[in-house]
């Protein structure tokens, strides 16, 4: 549905155009299908010149569009330009019109992946598929995953783009609980984990190790303590100033570079790059594993 947002600057001429009942009838007719002026005049039982004048008024405020199309000779045909009008009754100056969207996606709801052993998918009560078999990452039950791990690879998610039409994203933040992936666990095992949004790299965090030996706050009892237990909660943020990891600037990629308004989804990817200096793998924790009760969390501020 195409929406026309109104504010103090553009609402007056549009409201004037809509103040005439004949123009409302024209919009009703055009909502069914496009018409030329002759067809509109006939259905409204009005002179051609009067109907053409009303159509012009609606064209001037871009509520309808008129194009030349071939038919019995070339003729002008009018069509609806918007399906809905949204009025923002606030003054932009001196008022905070910022809004937020927050989504938490299960770590198993990735759309694309690549995993190399040692690797695995773990549910709340047992392994999903077979350990060290990349095919397990494609099992239907993966959507219930609470832990993903691989020595090399990535996972990519597509979250719904809920930024309203006519609004602009000011900041986007992704957070996840992560650590390196070593055999069993190893506190000193660095790994470079890189994040991207809409296929634009925004920053690499070097995990210091694979944390185990002490049970994670949420990690189930059946999972042995000599295996990975928990990670660190990391935050990737992009705004008008650049890209940040835990509020430390890491790149000059800015919010407009992500082209958030161009796609119906927002892609978020985490993984180990082929040219990473420290290729120590990755563990990604869900809401029932590790220390933090969340999966892939996204927060967007828009205005």
TrEMBL record:
Ranges of residues in domain HTH arsR-type: 10-91
InterPro entries: ArsR-like_HTH (IPR011991), HTH_ArsR_DNA-bd_dom (IPR001845), Metal_resp_trans_reg (IPR051011), WH-like_DNA-bd_sf (IPR036388), WH_DNA-bd_sf (IPR036390)
Pfam families with a match to the protein in the record: HTH_5
CDD domains linked to this entry: HTH_ARSR
Transmembrane segments: none
Keywords: DNA-binding, Transcription, Transcription regulation
Gene3D superfamilies reported for this sequence: Winged helix-like DNA-binding domain superfamily/Winged helix DNA-binding domain (1.10.10.10)
Name under which the protein is recorded: Transcriptional regulator
Organism: Pontibacillus salipaludis
Lineage: Bacteria, Bacillati, Bacillota, Bacilli, Bacillales
């Amino acid at each position: 549905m195409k929406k026309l947002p109104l504010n103090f600057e553009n609402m007056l001429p549009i409201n004037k155009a809509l103040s005439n009942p004949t123009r409302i009838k024209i919009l009703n007719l055009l909502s069914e299908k496009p018409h030329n002026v002759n067809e509109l005049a006939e259905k409204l039982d009005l002179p051609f010149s009067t109907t053409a004048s009303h159509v012009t008024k609606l064209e001037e405020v871009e509520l309808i569009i008129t194009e030349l199309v071939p038919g019995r000779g070339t003729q002008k045909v009018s069509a609806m330009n918007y399906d809905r009008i949204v009025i923002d009754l606030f003054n932009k100056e001196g008022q905070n019109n910022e809004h937020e969207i927050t989504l938490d996606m299960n770590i198993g709801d990735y759309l694309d992946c690549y995993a190399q052993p040692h690797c695995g998918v773990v549910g709340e009560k047992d392994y999903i598929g077979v350990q060290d078999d990349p095919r397990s990452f494609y099992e239907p039950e993966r959507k219930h995953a609470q832990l993903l791990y691989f020595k090399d690879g990535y996972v990519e998610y597509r979250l719904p783009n809920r930024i309203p039409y006519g609004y602009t994203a000011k900041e986007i933040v992704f957070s996840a609980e992560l650590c390196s992936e070593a055999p069993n666990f190893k506190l000193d095992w660095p790994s470079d984990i890189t994040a991207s949004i809409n296929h634009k790299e925004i920053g690499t965090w070097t995990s210091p190790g694979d944390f185990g030996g002490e049970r994670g706050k949420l990690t189930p009892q059946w999972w042995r303590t000599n295996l990975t237990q928990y990670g660190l909660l990391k935050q990737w943020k992009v705004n008008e100033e650049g890209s940040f990891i835990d509020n430390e600037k890491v790149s000059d990629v800015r919010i407009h570079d992500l082209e958030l308004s161009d796609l119906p989804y927002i892609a978020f990817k985490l993984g180990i790059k082929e040219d990473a200096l420290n290729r120590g793998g990755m563990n990604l924790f869900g809401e029932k594993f590790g220390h933090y009760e969340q999966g892939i969390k996204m927060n967007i501020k828009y205005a």
